[in-house]
Amino acid sequence: MIKKVFPLDVESILLPWLTTASKRITYHILNTFKEHGLTLSREQMIILAHLQEKDGLVQNDLAFITSRDKTSLTRIINNMEKKGLLKRVRCENDQRRNKIFITTAGINQFKKGIPLVLAIVDKMQAGISKPDIKKAIEVIKKVSQNITELEDEKK
Fold first, then answer.
1. CA distance 143 to 134
2. What is the pLDDT, as a whole number, of residue 95?
3. How many whole angstroms separate alpha carbon 6 and alpha carbon 1?
4. Is 7 inside a domain boundary?
5. pTM (two decimals)
């Protein structure tokens, strides 16, 4: 007989549910994109969305906005640049910094992807009331805030 070292009531802990939901959403978005001929990842779609809102973001700012570390963002940008979805331009006043611009191909991919994402959101939230969605958002924001505070304590 295996003795429980740490009794875990999965039904009362957010972590496994948040992790599972996040993985399933990412997987579903990726498969939906593939079915419609898009070669974008969820992360790439998020970057295109931010550049669609404000083109020419400094790469470090884009890393902060998307909650990505600089190394992983650089890798994503390199891949997107190879696909012709965006371009990197050195800042005139600081050659160590890059501004990231969306290309016409990037805009076209974004326009093709956004209705797919919105359809996924509609299906994902089906049968959930607006107050419940609002409450879930509040809870997830609080979890994120708590994690940020834990990280700040370690600094």
1. 14
2. 72
3. 15
4. no
5. 0.82
Say how many CA atoms lie within 13 Å of 22 toward its Cβ.
8
Q: Is residue 103 part of a domain?
A: yes
Question: Do 76 and 116 share a domain, yes or no?
Answer: yes
Domain that holds residue 81: 12-124
Residues 23 and 79 occupy one common structural domain: yes
Taken as a whole, the chain contains a residue count of 155
92 and 62 in a common domain: yes
Let me know whether 133 and 65 are in one domain.
no
Six-digit token string for 35:
């079915």
67-82 core/surface letters (b: 16 or more CB in 10 A; e: else): ebeeeebeebbeebee
Structure tokens at 151: 């990280």
Q: Clarify whether residues 139 and 120 are in a common domain.
A: no
Ramachandran region, residue 104 (left: φ > 0; alpha: ψ -120 to 50; beta: rest) = alpha
Q: How far apart are CA 30 and CA 41, in angstroms?
A: 6
Report whether pLDDT(4) > 70.
Answer: no
3-class secondary structure per residue, 58-125 = EHHHHHHHCCCCHHHHHHHHHHHHHCCCEEEEECCCCCCCEEEEECHHHHHHHHHHHHHHHHHHHHHC
Task: Grade residue 9 by pLDDT with cuts at 50, 70 and 90.
Answer: confident
